[in-house]
Amino acid sequence: MNTSELQNIKQRYSIVGNCEALNRALDVALQVAPTDLSVLIVGESGVGKEIIPRVIHDNSPRRREKYFAINCGSIPEGTIDSELFGHVKGSFTGAINDSPGYFGVAHKGTLFLDEVGELPMATQARLLRVLETGEYIPVGATEVRKTDVRIVAATNVNIQQAISEGRFREDLYYRLNQVPVQMPPLRDRGEDIVLLFRLFAMQMAEKYRMDKIVLTDEAKQLLMRYKWPGNVRQLKNITEQISILSTERVITPEVLLQFIPQDKESTQLATIRREGEHSFESEREILYKILFELRGNVNDMRREMGALKKQIEDVQSSRPMPAEVVPSTQLAPINSIQPLTPMLEEAEAEEYVEPEHEPESLNLNDLSRQMLEKALERNGGNRKKAAKELGISDRTLYRRLKQYGLDNK
Which of 241, 188, 248 shows the shortest CA–CA distance to 215? Predict the structure, then answer.
């Protein structure tokens, strides 16, 4: 499409802007208009998707027939089938007359289904049948009716994600998406933002007979840096607010900031990561957190093991140990309680503590020495009685006393 044709289309439909993505969308619309192919318009809310189906209809062989724009998201789920496909009298409460529905009255014309991603699954199945065969059955009817309708649909949701979540039929998506049209968001249209602001300001001045507001160069730059989550609709609202509420007719950045939302999500541009690039920032933080928690768990385990061994010591101090469970080469009082032994040994093996820094409560040699001293004290220094209480031989007792430096006591 040459430049003159493009400008004629923009003037006819009051389309403002010269960005390449917008020109491409209009070019595709004009090329597909003479056909009966289904068109799916994709774009964020407020970008002006409703212009494209009007361009398609007015430049198609159906331009003399009826055109209907239907917002699928605004029709209650319980009545949407009746709205689209019609109903017969008495088919449900309130059906006092027959109704042909949009597919009936738009015969030979064009239907624009806005927010098609909001259609219920049952309605999607009926829409798919109309697209493939041109046939439909009104609610409560038994006979099949035929229609010849051109479908142009639009959505602001991620259809691929909706398909993966089971909220949209994949076969319907491919049937609607015979020719896709992508409408660019306002933040990607550069200087078009200033042109649109100028148009809306002029319209307000003419409508209310007031002086037109104009932007300084710095305000223009601020306007183009803003993220515009509401796109053209939001820009128009803000322009109208400034026109009515601002006492200044020359708009500076300071004045503009009074009307533009200042939340971080709206004022900062989205960061786009290059394909294949990956950041391990979050993974590193998670690993640090796990290690920190693990360190705390190990320290807690050490304290618990110390308390358990202290309890074992107190138990062993109050009763003699059987000789058969004590090794002849090493005094190990905790072996008399067999179920605790593997747990204690495993806990010690997992500790990451140098031997010289090990707490005294965890030293088995100290435990053995303390038990010998308490046994001798309870028996008035009588080594034979102490050996009998501990369940060991006199020879073993003497060797232990010499090992711990208690043989002179």
Answer: 248
Q: What is the pTM of this model?
A: 0.63
SS3 readout for 124-143: HHHHHHHHHHCEECCECCCC
Cα angle 102-105-108, degrees, rounded to a multiple of 5: 105
d(CA 313, CA 307) in angstroms, rounded, equals 10
CA distance 124 to 129: 9
Residue recorded with tokens 């212009």 = 51
181-211 b/e with 16+ CB inside 10 Å = b?
bebbbbbebeebbbebbbbbbebbeeeeeee
pLDDT in tens, 89-114: 988 888 889 999 999 999 999 999 99
By CB atoms closer than 10 A (0-12, 13-18, 19+), residue 281 is: exposed
Give the H/E segment covering residue 315. Answer: helix 281-318
CA distance 384 to 333: 18
Parallel/antiparallel/unpaired status of strands 179-182 and 39-42 = parallel
Alpha carbon distance 26, 181 (integer Å):
9
| φ, ψ dihedrals at 354, nearest 5° | -65, 145
Secondary structure E strands in 184-275: 214-215, 250-251
116 sits in which H/E element: none
